[in-house]
Amino acid sequence: MASASVIDVGRPVARPRSLFSRLRGGLQGTEYAWAIAFCIPYVGVFIAFVIFPVFYGLWLGHSPSLYIELFHDPIYQQTIVNTILYLAIGVNVKMFFALLLSGFFMRKGWWVKGLLMVYVLPWAVPALPTFISIHWMLNTQWGLVNNVLWDMFGIDGPGWLDTSRWLALGSVITTYIWKNMPFWTVILLAGRMAIPQELYEAAEVDGATGIRRFIHVSFPLLANLYLVCTLLSTIFTLGDFNTANFISGGGPALSTHVLATLGIRDAFEIARPQLGVAAVLSSLPLMIPLVVILMHKLRTSDVQL
Amino acid sequence: MTQITRRTVLRNSLAVAAVGSLARPFIANAAAKTATVWWTQGFVPEEDAAFKKVVEDYQKQSGNIIDYSLIPFAPLMQKIVSAITSSDVPDLISHDINDAVLVPQNAWDDKIVDATDVIEAQKDKLHPTILLGTQYYNNVSKKRGTYLIPFKTACVPLHIWSSLVEKAGFKVADAPKTWDAFWDFFKPMQPKLRETIRNVYAMGLQCTTTGPADGNNMFNQFLIANGGNSIITKDGKPHLDDPTVKEAVIKSLSYISKAYKDGYIPSGALSWNDADDNNAFHSKLFIADFDGTISTEVAIKDQAERDDVTTMGLTNGNDGKPMPAQLGIGGAFIPKGAKNIDVAKDFMKFLIQPTVINDYLKNGLGRWIPPYPDVVKNDSWWFADPHRKPYTTEALVDPTVPGYPVFNPGWAEVNAQQVWGAAEASIIRDGTEPKAAAEAAFKKIEAILAKYPIVQS
Amino acid sequence: MSATTIQTRRPPNYRRRKWAVEAAALLLGVVIAIWTLAPIYNMVMVALESHNDVFSTNIFPADPSAYSFWIVFTEGYWYLEYFWHQYENSLYIGFWTVFLTLWVGSMVSYSIGRMRIRHGWLLTNAALLTYLVPAAFLAIPFYRMMQTYGLGNNVWSIIAVEVTFATPYAIFIFQQYGRSIPLELDEAARIDGASPIQVYFKIYLPLMAPALVAVGTYALLLAWNEYLYQFLLLSNKRSMTVPVALAQFLNSDESPWNYMMATAIVYAIPPVVIYYMFRGRMTAGLTMGGVKG
After folding, report:
1. Which of A112, A108, A100, A101 is nearest to A197 (CA)?
2. pLDDT tens column, B74-104
3. CB contact under 8 A, A249 and B271
4. Does C194 touch chain A (CB under 8 A)?
5. How far apart are CA A85 and CA A170, in angstroms?
6. Would you call A154 an interface residue with chain B, using a CB distance cutoff of 8 Å?
7. pTM passes above 0.90
8. How do the pLDDT tens digits run along chain A, 305 residues long?
């Protein structure tokens, strides 16, 4: 982003610039007015719909006693663990497979192209219908998964969402991966396709094929994109309410809540909005560094998203 | 045009005066005012139609306008919480679980308008349990007041699939008359039914931590059956140290968790929400359960299938003596900060008149019962249907107690935190001993109730 | 391989390994297909089943019938009473979310990226702050806000929410994509006497078309996937949207899963159709130039 402003028309070289004209970035007169005008809608949206709720939210959750109460609550402690697992496993497994599959989808062949079209369905189909469908699939008595296990293998499938925290959490994470992997696969695929073919050919000449080609050519070039995607995905996932809510509902026995769902539960089921907001704000120590790093990365490197 | 004579004018003006004086109790003032009202959407369309009719009647009579929103159960809860938090409230709020969840805390915080004058005219007709159930404690004025305007009531009956009982070779009439023995009755039926049906369980006890009501209702009844009803008395003081209460809690937790561990309860019960157990019942996943209102029966469209369900009132407690049922009180409240308190009060005064409310609830297929025993006893409709009869009897004839949140608002949070469900879960999943789980539950309850010191009962 | 490239030495069993790799790839493809389609199949299967069949252990519908779809189309069920109106609401929200996100986002990107307003980066970073406290957390503040702005129970409250959350991402995509369009084009137009707004309409927007499509689709899917805010801010049957109505089924006393799945499928059709229509443009919009480390 380092190129000099090209709209610097009419700026004499030696004259010291006043503060005002420095702020304007060298835009003159009506041009400047236009530039401001173009920004106003978003600034308006931002102030009205971001600044106010964020500050109101911070105000709702400012009392330290809320946090003390939270930290002593075993449900909250479980929720923190769940959220961390959700992020660590969910995001990383998803991105890893997205990376691998992006390589897979580079293959030639009509059936690969057809498969790609099918593969992105989870992203195109809205969340609610699919989550409800998956929730029903996992029903112990009547769900498709256990029906298949029984009809085809004679196995009495376990209660996926019923008793075990880990099975339920695993189901939530698997659903999350199912829903979000296609999106990131496409992004990484786009990134791969942007790698010039000559590099691959040169590598092949040097004898690098398959895995070695991946390690020495593709991955270094994708690394930055991969990192940015992971950061962005982590931020999105931290706020993910739908998946946990519709797949496990926080069950069994409140053991698979994540911060987003716990916040809503505390706010509305326990009818203590401040506690709910506090639960959610407690993720800020993780959020802020992520956002800062992301902002930094996006400014200093040319990563195409 | 008929001839206008002095006589007709006199006659007509007399008529107008008569109507005016009769109608005066319900006309707040001549100018038409509007009140915003949030009302729970019914579980069946008839309930909503009945409400609309009441509103129309009121509007005609009073000239006021009721700007109502019929909002489904769960979103309504969210809306109410948000509204009260942001102090931007409607004039009248009715939610099916106002009595257990919304009124206790908000009355404590002095966020509700006292409605003693609203129920004054009907006070004597109210069932004593219900009248008791309207008196919530206000921590600012340090005394109890009428913060809930009751207009309907419900209780929790037993529901049994007769065909499953018979298929297993038993008869419903043989069911024992004491609580634990009643539930044990279904246990031997399970292996017999499993010979032909793959997915069937003896009982659908809701040992869940997802609310809002089923898990608590179920546990509380076990508690009462085991003699623990004095866990909190009507002055709001908890009696957690009472050995009878402790014993009752441990016994209840043991029975429920053992039934689950022995496989008599569907495994999903740990996570059931208020709809899941009904769905499980409809799919005949289990033989018997204990669930609020007769909505499960009412929802069955097919007459033959509906006849297959036996609705029963409570058995006796484990000591052989009759035990009280918990009474849910459906009511409305007027939040402080409402802009049209008079109209709201006026509308409620209209609604809770015995004839009006009786018609309203009957049109709503009788899921809820009027709070006036005499009205109900004089109307055979409430005892006509084989499902409705035990339900109404349990609610208004047999002994009842109001819910614990009336006595102490902290209990609303105890309910919301699903303390008992969590205890059951820890016994079932973590292998905690019932005694230890009971201790943990008591600790939690003590911590919550400590936030609500009631000075004067 | 053309004759001018250097022949690489082929390892022995080259053909066989190639077939093995191809077979493995095919197997992987099948796994991916099953993985992807299972929940979708479940939706379709349940939608075609009768009520009793839903509560059975069949893998294929015993007696498939389109009855559930008929119920949905004719609004023949209590919770589906206003289905088409709610569908309209969803479409309305989708459309305006897309339009406003594209409009607001492109204008800001233009100002920051093309006109190079000084300290424009402040605005892009501030935009990113929107994601700092994610959507699920601001439920109550938003509710309060919408009441204050007089938008209670109004679909515009949802549109406002969606636009707020879609625009930062839009700004980034536009920024990145805009880098591949040379600034000289703008300059040339300016020198020819075009005003900024003309440059915006005649040069910027047309060249940004793939990015616009990509972001538009993203915004549409965001609005279509949204549940929490619609649930909280729209409580009236007439103002509700389909996801809220769908979730209501879950709270009802009986759950007609077949109707639910039929409703879900009907709801899912528009975004899927739109996605497939614009797939090509979308990929182009997401790729441009090289990836530099």
Report:
1. A108
2. 778 878 887 887 788 899 999 988 888 889 9
3. yes
4. no
5. 10
6. no
7. no
8. 333 333 434 444 444 445 544 444 555 677 778 778 888 888 888 888 888 888 888 888 888 888 998 888 888 999 999 999 999 999 999 999 999 898 888 888 888 888 888 898 898 888 888 998 999 899 888 888 988 888 888 888 888 888 788 999 999 999 999 999 998 998 888 888 777 778 777 877 877 766 777 777 777 778 888 888 898 888 888 888 889 988 988 878 888 999 888 888 888 777 777 888 888 888 888 888 888 888 787 776 655 44
Q: What does the block give as tokens for B440?
A: 């943990």
Q: Which residue has the tokens 């057809």?
A: A114
CA–CA gap between residue B93 and residue A153 (Å, rounded): 54
CB contact C227 to A (< 8 Å): yes
Q: What is the pLDDT of residue C109?
A: 85
A39 at interface of C, judged by CB pairs closer than 8 A: yes
Indicate the CATH number for domain B31-154+328-402. Answer: 3.40.190.10
- Binary contact (B296, C236; C-beta < 8 A): no
Q: What does the pLDDT look like over C17-40, one tens digit per residue?
A: 888 888 888 899 999 999 999 999
Nearest residue in C to B80, CA atom: C232
Question: What ipTM describes this predicted complex?
Answer: 0.80
Model pLDDT for residues B24-67, shown as the tens digit of each residue: 444 444 456 889 999 998 877 788 899 999 999 999 998 899 98
What is the average pLDDT across B185-209? 91
Q: Strand B158-161 relative to strand B309-312: parallel, antiparallel, unpaired?
A: antiparallel
DSSP C139-208: HHHHHHHHHHTT-TT-HHHHHHHHHHHHHHHHHHHHHHHHTTS-HHHHHHHHHTT--HHHHIIIIIHHHT
Cβ proximity of C141 and B85 under 8 Å: no
Sign of CA dihedral B120, B126, B128, B134: negative
Residues of B with CB under 8 A from a CB of A: 77-78, 81-82, 85, 101-102, 105, 199, 208-212, 266-268, 270-271, 273, 283, 285, 412-413, 416-418, 421-422, 425-426, 428-429
Rounded to the nearest 5 degrees, what angle is found at the Cα of B137, between the Cα atoms of B135 and B141? 120
- Asked whether the beta carbons of residue A144 and residue C45 sit closer than 8 angstroms, the reply is yes
Domain ranges of chain B: 31-154+328-402, 158-312+417-449
Q: How many CB atoms lie within 10 A of CB A279?
A: 31
Chain B neighbors of C143, CB-CB under 8 A: 79, 82-83, 86
What lies within 8 Å, CB to CB, of A184 at 6+ separation is: A94, A95, A98, A229, A233
Q: Which residues of A touch C37 (CB under 8 A)?
A: 118, 121
For A264, nearest residue in chain B (alpha carbons): B78
Q: CA-nearest residue of chain A to B201?
A: A141
Query: Which of C11, B363, B432, C133 has the alpha carbon at shortest distance from A55?
Result: C133
Q: Which of chain C's residues have a Cβ under 8 Å away from the Cβ of A221?
A: 291, 293
Q: Which pLDDT score, from 0 to 100, does residue A4 have?
A: 38
Look at A253 and B422 and tell me if their CB atoms are within 8 Å.
Answer: yes
Spatial distance between the Cα atoms of B359 and B151, rounded to a whole number of angstroms: 12
Is A304–C164 a contact, with Cβ atoms under 8 angstroms apart? no
Task: Judge whether B31-154+328-402 and B158-312+417-449 match in fold.
Answer: yes
Q: Pick C229 or B436 by higher pLDDT.
A: B436
**CB atoms A162 and B82 under 8 Å:** no
CATH class of the domain comprising B158-312+417-449: alpha beta
Domains of chain C: residue spans and CATH = 15-65 (no CATH), 81-286 (1.10.3720.10)
CATH number among 3.30.460.10, 1.10.3720.10, 3.30.505.50, 1.10.3230.20, domain A65-300: 1.10.3720.10
Q: Closest CB to C253: pick one of B43, B76, B283.
A: B43
